[in-house]
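Students often ask why we bother encoding 3D structure as a string. The short answer is that it lets us treat folding as translation between two languages. Here is a chain of 176 residues written in the first language.
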Amino acid sequence: MTKQKKGFWTFIFSFIPGAGEMHMGFMKQGISIMVVFWMCIGLASFLNMGPLLYGLPLLWFYSFFNVHNLRSLTEEEFYSIEDEYAFRLDEVISNKRDFVKKHRYIIAIGLILVGCSILWDNSYRLLADILPNYFSDIIYRIGDMVPQLVWGFVIIGIGVSMVRGKKKELEDNEGA
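And here it is in the second language, the structure alphabet:
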């Protein structure tokens, strides 16, 4: 780890997710934040899934304020911090078999939804090219709405399952 850095370059690098952490000597943390940030952008553009980009401001703010929190630490506190991967990516990478086994159902649903989204995006464009203009306009509008509706229902489903899980947890704690 290098000397604690404060000043102009730390401020400038804090605007790039992960770069500020790397500038301060936290390479694992900075690279993991940067990889997650750019991977979200890459996946969103490759899969044509704009809603994936909604999480980027949260990641940007996390990185920005993390750098400024590190910058404001005393020297003792700063040097006591270990450089670890952000978001526990080291655990996910090292235990990927266990991670996949534990979350197999969620991963499978996610892959099916991404696959359906890709198929839908390509098929409705093909149909729009084949059919007359009136029908292609209708198909185009439906094509824009269906993926958003599906992702909306997925998000609502996740929220409902989280509420049910919390309710069940509270009921179990009352019964114990």
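Translate back mentally: The chain has nine helices and no strands. Keep this in mind for the problem set.
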